[in-house]
Amino acid sequence: MNTATSTGGEPQGNYPQKFAELTDNVLFGDIWTPTQLKPRERSLVTVAALVAMYRLEQLPFHLQRALDNGVCADELAEVITHLAFYSGWPTAASALNVLSELQLCLSARQE
Predict the structure, then answer these.
(1) Taking the CA of residue 53 as centre, how many other CA atoms within 13 Å lie in the half-sphere pointing to its CB?
(2) CB-based burial of residue 18 (10 Å sphere; 0-12 exposed, 13-18 middle, 19+ buried)?
(3) Which residue of 34, 37, 60, 86 is most buried, as measured by CB atoms within 10 A?
(4) Cβ(3)–Cβ(13) under 8 Å?
């Protein structure tokens, strides 16, 4: 099976080539590009959906993408805290742990 070297700008050698192409061309090419929502807003929506659905595996990538799209860490923490009352305390607590780990990694890189 041919495997992809990147999906959404992230190394993903374990995915089939077609999956990587759909991710790059359709998801990040078509779905993320309409102008009705800015990338910052799309990131907030995506992070909220991932938190609410307890999709922790994809969360670090999209938290970083949100930061890259202009959402600050305090805003992400506030969104996640707000979601605790809608998606459940455990989903929010786990997401806050992921955000904290990401912030630690980013701080370590800057030193």
Answers:
(1) 10
(2) exposed
(3) 60
(4) yes
CB neighbourhood size of 19 (10 A): 14
What's the residue count for the chain? 111
Give per-residue pLDDT as tens, 71-102.
999 999 999 999 999 999 999 999 999 999 99
- Alpha-carbon distance of 98 to 49, in angstroms, equals 15
**How far is 5 from 2, CA to CA, in rounded Å?**
10
Backbone dihedral angles phi then psi of residue 76, each to the nearest 5 degrees: -60, -45
Q: pTM above the 0.85 mark?
A: no
Residue with tokens 């938290």: 63
CA 109 – CA 111 distance, rounded (Å):
6
65: nearest Cα among 97, 34, 32, 37: 32
Question: What is the rounded CA–CA span in Å between residue 76 and residue 10?
Answer: 21
In 10 A of CB 5, how many CB atoms?
10
